[in-house]
Amino acid sequence: MKATMKDVAKLAGVGLGSVSRVINNVPVKESTAAKVKAAIKELNYEADIYARGLKTNKTYTVALILPTIWHPFFAEFAYYVETELEERNYKLLLCNSDGRPEKEYEYIQMVRQNKVDGIIGITYSDIDQYISSSLPFVSIDRYFTEDVIYVTTDNVEGGRLAARELFKRGAKHVAFVGGHQETPNETKNRRKCFQLEAERLGLECEVLDLLEPIEDLQSDIEKFLLEYPTIDGIFTITDLAALDAIHVINKLGKKVPEDIQVIGFDGLKMTKEAQYVVSTIAQPVEDMARTAVSLLLNVVEGKEAPSRTVLPAAFKEGATTKKLENREE
Amino acid sequence: MKATMKDVAKLAGVGLGSVSRVINNVPVKESTAAKVKAAIKELNYEADIYARGLKTNKTYTVALILPTIWHPFFAEFAYYVETELEERNYKLLLCNSDGRPEKEYEYIQMVRQNKVDGIIGITYSDIDQYISSSLPFVSIDRYFTEDVIYVTTDNVEGGRLAARELFKRGAKHVAFVGGHQETPNETKNRRKCFQLEAERLGLECEVLDLLEPIEDLQSDIEKFLLEYPTIDGIFTITDLAALDAIHVINKLGKKVPEDIQVIGFDGLKMTKEAQYVVSTIAQPVEDMARTAVSLLLNVVEGKEAPSRTVLPAAFKEGATTKKLENREE
DNA sequence: CTGTTAGCGCTTTCAA
DNA sequence: TTGAAAGCGCTAACAG
User: Fold this and answer.
1) pLDDT tens for residues A146-186?
2) Is B73 found in the same domain as B182?
3) Which candidate among A116, A162, A305, B146 keeps its CA 20 to 30 Å from the CA of A109?
4) How far A97 CA lies from chain B's nearest CA (Å)?
5) Total structural domains in chain A?
């Protein structure tokens, strides 16, 4: 059967305490350390996490709650969260909430059960009531209350950026296409600030902002584009919505980016090595993930952490906007 | 501080055992059950997983080892694994191995540390030596030894299917495009059986099968297509490779599917709701995930499980093959 | 049916 | 520097 610390102690001819010390890097006489290490190797001993946790109340595990891992944006985020946790010797417990609050709540309970030390969550449902300030929780893209820590992309600047990039590329009549939910979240600024900036730049600006869940975005876009045939630049709330828009544009016999330029939001790539799916206002996903992990582990370790972190968005050129002559960067 | 079972027992005026029984659904007198439940609610009590695990040696957690979650195929697989585990009250610990054997090994150790009950792994590195038959491990797409359980898609039939679908759509000169690794794995059958079937059908068949890692697949494909200008149907080893092929084809001024039809392998969709990225031989990802979980949990629970499970592949039409008149399905 | 009790494997005083 | 011993919070066997 599995070797225990007792077995190791007996084989090494030392006390239980010494074995524990060696394992936890507490200084011991070199000769005893050697004996213990030899015994550990011989018995192929591995410490039982449960017994240890019972004493230490630490799990070195963090839960990540996402709507679904089956989405390139969340997958990228999860990738970087896991990578960063790994570097700090933590493990990642993954939860696809599918938007179900019960499931999110279940994971929140786990920190009380000592199953995880804390939670990083991208959640759009109303779990405010369960998120207390005493719970080690970092929210992404969603503001709860004063004392719940969150990190987000600069959606304000992101929206403006989209308007400016379209303007620089000669668009005259732009549009925002997207959806929104009842719950307040940061993404609403994408529309608002795009619109403001477009108007400031003297562009005509239309808005198609549906309430989610959206039945059939493509046909809504089709009607919209038919209604405003002079639109030559579109900013969509996400890259996936941009794909829908492009599909409709092609169906209507127009070309991207020649007739209509499209800029999405998120910075989607199917894999690390791939190209951007569309021209996009990219979220600094890696930075967001690292920041979220840092903040969370600070809280877990009892340190202070700022409650609001806003990270910059950046335009990334894909194949859905025209090339600029005087390339900057 | 956190309430313990003792606190609950005291408050309810019963013994420790009764509390434990209530929690574990062992029949007790209704009146005691009520008292206990009331106390639990009042104290907001949650059982400590660690203390319980120390006794039971169960974690109800399974590790999933993938090359990277940031890839639509692995993300989809992970999605279904988590969903199935959730239904069985298990949790998922996620590991991006990035192909590093040390990291894979670390997770294998966790089984011995009681951190996880078992492992589902998609791994292409040489960790055979650590995978013993006593380790609850289910391998995907990769054969280790006789007694390591694995589940895979029917790559043999998949390859044939691709040849047949191209043939049905009028292709005369087909090609396989892909890469392979030193380690033996099931995917090699995709090329082999495609080639055999194409020849059987009387199609001319070229092969571009590079050794991974591949520096620049697109330029290799470009050379290849320039060398064989009459190719009118391509089967790629993955959907992602198909995307590369399409890119090259367009660059060469030809059209997909009019001039060259392309069929990939995997059945990639960016999200659950999205369209197939290309016409494809789809792996039954959901079925694979459910099967893998079933097999693993059987082993974890000490039951027997078949060591080889092969699941059927199926052709899924995307936009990169011609529509057939007499649609079957 | 229920209270008491003996550990599970480890960490951490406390003496020595 | 170290061994012995006392729990951590829970489950399960046992006696009532």
Assistant:
1) 788 999 999 999 999 999 999 999 999 999 999 988 877 77
2) no
3) A305
4) 9
5) 3
Per the CB < 8 Å rule, is A49 touching B270? no
Confidence of residue A326 (pLDDT cuts 50, 70, 90): low
The Cα B147–Cα A252 span in angstroms is 57
Question: Residue A24: which nucleotide is closest by CA–C1'?
Answer: C11
Residue A128 included in any domain? yes
> The domain containing residue B96 runs over which residues?
61-152+285-312
What residue type is B292 in one-letter code? A
Q: Which helix (H) or strand (E) holds A292?
A: helix A285-300
Distances from the Cα of B219 to the Cα of A276, B227, B229, B245, angstroms: 19, 12, 15, 10
Give yes or no for B48 touching A (CB within 8 A): yes
Say which nucleotide is closest to residue A15, CA to C1' distance: D3
DSSP B276: B
Task: Give residue-wise pLDDT tens across range B261-280.
Answer: 999 999 999 999 999 999 99
Which residues pair with residue B118 across a beta bridge? B62
B29 CB below 7 A from strand C atoms:
yes
> Is the minimum distance from the CB of A326 to strand D below 7 Å?
no
B54 shares contact with chain A (CB less than 8 Å): yes
Mean confidence (pLDDT) of chain A: 93
pTM, full prediction: 0.94
Q: Give the Cα separation of B242 and B264 in Å (integer).
A: 5
A6 closest-nt by C1' vs CA:
C9
Same domain, A254 and A220: yes
Q: Which of B96, B240, B272 sits opposite A83 (nearest CB)?
A: B96
Residue A66, CA distances (Å) to A85, A300, B87, B308 in order: 16, 20, 17, 33
User: Chain A, 95-134: which have a CB under 8 Å from a chain B CB?
Assistant: 95-96, 103, 109-110, 112-115
Instruction: Indicate if B43 and B144 belong to the same structural domain.
Output: no
Which pLDDT band holds residue B329 (cuts at 50, 70, 90)? very low
